[in-house]
């Protein structure tokens, strides 16, 4: 299912004002990746969704938000001359494919095991090849792990969305999953589990942070305006307020 959300106004001090001039427009693609971006009932929401919405509002850009599986979202953002994509890891292999706005909100990622499975004990990524890791198709971690010798059918299992690996992980069908303390907390909530039931074993500190990746055909001036808006939202404390509000009130989408 595809969900489209159109942002058509500008929010200033709690009041909506209409945009008189015809605004620039973007189609902003994303995936199911709670709590950063996901569909809840009839809306596309999340920490970085709300942040990008605020960036569009501050720059008077008419933004349509569309949710797809990651690989399809990524391909559409590359094909759509007025497309953008988030939350996107900025890495050398992708640098020339987009213009970049960010970083958005993020937290450090790790390989996690169940605390009850002490036999799953890799000390480094070479050791981790002995175990099965859940990854999302087309995701930055899939790309990276395959580049260093991991392979489907041996030590990788693929899923449509990152959070889809949690069920098999809890059933011991997947030994290790990739996430950050923030996302692991909310993914486990879906199954009535606590973050204390898992523990990190290896830090992923070699991959890029979350960004808004903008199609190369979009005017650089527009990209600069989005970056300025993001910087202002961070410096004002609004970006951190969004994070704290989501983590306080989060309920896993069904």
Automatic annotation (TrEMBL):
SMART domains: PBPb. InterPro entries: Solute-binding_3/MltF_N (IPR001638). Residues 25-249 form the Solute-binding protein family 3/N-terminal domain. It comes from the Bacteria. Pfam families: SBP_bac_3. PANTHER family: PERIPLASMIC SUBSTRATE BINDING PROTEIN FAMILY 3, SOLUTE-BINDING PROTEIN FAMILY 3_N-TERMINAL DOMAIN-CONTAINING PROTEIN. This is Transporter substrate-binding domain-containing protein. It comes from Alkalimonas collagenimarina. The lineage of its organism: Bacteria, Pseudomonadati, Pseudomonadota, Gammaproteobacteria, Alkalimonas.
């Amino acid at each position: 299912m595809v969900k489209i959300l159109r942002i058509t106004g500008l929010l200033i001090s709690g009041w909506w004002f209409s945009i008189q001039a015809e605004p620039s427009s973007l189609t902003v693609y994303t995936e199911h990746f709670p709590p950063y971006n996901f569909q809840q009932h009839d809306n596309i929401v999340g920490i970085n969704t709300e942040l990008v919405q605020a960036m569009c509002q501050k720059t008077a850009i008419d933004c349509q938000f569309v949710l797809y599986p990651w690989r399809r979202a990524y391909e559409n953002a590359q094909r759509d001359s007025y497309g953008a994509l988030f939350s996107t890891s900025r890495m050398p292999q992708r640098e020339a494919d987009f213009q970049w706005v960010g970083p958005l909100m993020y937290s450090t990622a790790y390989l996690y095991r169940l605390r009850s499975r002490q036999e799953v004990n890799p000390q480094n990524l070479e050791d981790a090849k002995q175990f099965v890791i859940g990854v999302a198709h087309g995701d930055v971690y899939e790309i990276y792990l395959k580049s260093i010798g991991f392979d489907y059918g041996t030590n990788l299992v693929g899923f449509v969305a990152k959070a889809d690996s949690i069920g098999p992980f809890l059933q011991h069908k997947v030994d290790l999953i990739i996430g950050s303390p923030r996302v692991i907390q909310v993914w486990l909530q879906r199954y009535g589990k606590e973050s204390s039931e898992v523990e990190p074993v290896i830090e992923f500190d070699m991959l890029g942070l979350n960004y808004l990746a903008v199609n190369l055909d979009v005017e650089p001036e527009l990209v600069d305006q989005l970056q300025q808006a993001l910087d202002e939202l961070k410096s004002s404390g609004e970006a951190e307020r969004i994070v704290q509000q989501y983590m306080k009130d989060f309920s896993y989408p069904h």
